[in-house]
Specification:
Elements: E1 10-11, E2 24-26, E3 34-35, E4 48-50, E5 72-74, E6 80-81, H1 87-94, E7 100-102, E8 106-108, H2 117-124, E9 147-153, H3 156-161, E10 173-179
Parallel strand pairs: 1-3, 2-4, 4-5, 5-7, 6-8
Antiparallel strand pairs: 9-10
Biased composition (Basic and acidic residues): 165-180
Region (Disordered): 128-180
Keywords: Leucine-rich repeat, Repeat
Length: 180
């Protein structure tokens, strides 16, 4: 079904219930900015979904749950916002490895503009540095309290994942001071 270029702004729940045997749905070049959770309910056999060239920022949790046989998902030319709301889409794609998708690139916030959304999610879920044994006697404050210093080096790969403003040409070391 080709519904491209129809100025559609929202998909409400169960919009396609009567078309349950649908295999291809083209919703590209509309003004879609919201897709309700049950909009694709009943589309159990849908194989291709084109949502490119719309105004989508993220998907609400559960939007894609009924698309069991989906194999192609075109998401290009949408203003994807890379914040916590985008995580559902990446989670769903991770758990549906048979789905080929394209066009998932951050447009907001500025520091992530142009990044693949998957890379943004990886940095969001990055681990904190592992503690090293404190150096004995270092940082004695003279008041019975001891400050422990932790110095760790970041790996080059991790630096490449950072937004450009956070990349620093200075030595790739940081210091954490803990007061106890």
């Amino acid at each position: 079904m080709d519904l491209s270029s129809n100025s559609i702004t929202q998909l409400r729940p169960k919009e396609f219930v009567a078309a349950r045997d649908l295999k291809l749905l083209n919703l590209s070049s509309n003004s879609l900015d919201q897709i309700d959770t049950a909009a694709f309910a009943g589309l159990l056999y849908l194989r291709e979904l084109d949502l490119s060239n719309n105004s989508l920022h993220y998907f609400q949790y559960g939007v894609l749950e009924d698309l069991y046989f989906l194999r192609m998902l075109n998401l290009g030319d949408n203003p994807w916002v890379c914040d916590y709301n985008i995580h559902y889409l990446i989670y769903w794609l991770k758990h549906h490895p048979g789905v080929a998708y394209s066009g998932l690139v951050c447009t907001e916030p500025q520091e992530f503009r142009g990044w693949p959304v998957e890379n943004y999610v990886k940095t969001y879920n990055g681990e904190c540095p592992k503690d090293k044994d404190p150096q004995p006697g270092k940082g004695d404050t003279g008041q019975g309290q001891t400050a422990q210093e932790l110095v760790a080096e970041t790996e080059e790969e991790e630096m490449e994942l950072l937004p450009k403003p956070l990349r620093d040409p200075r030595p790739k070391k940081y210091e954490v001071t803990r007061l106890s």
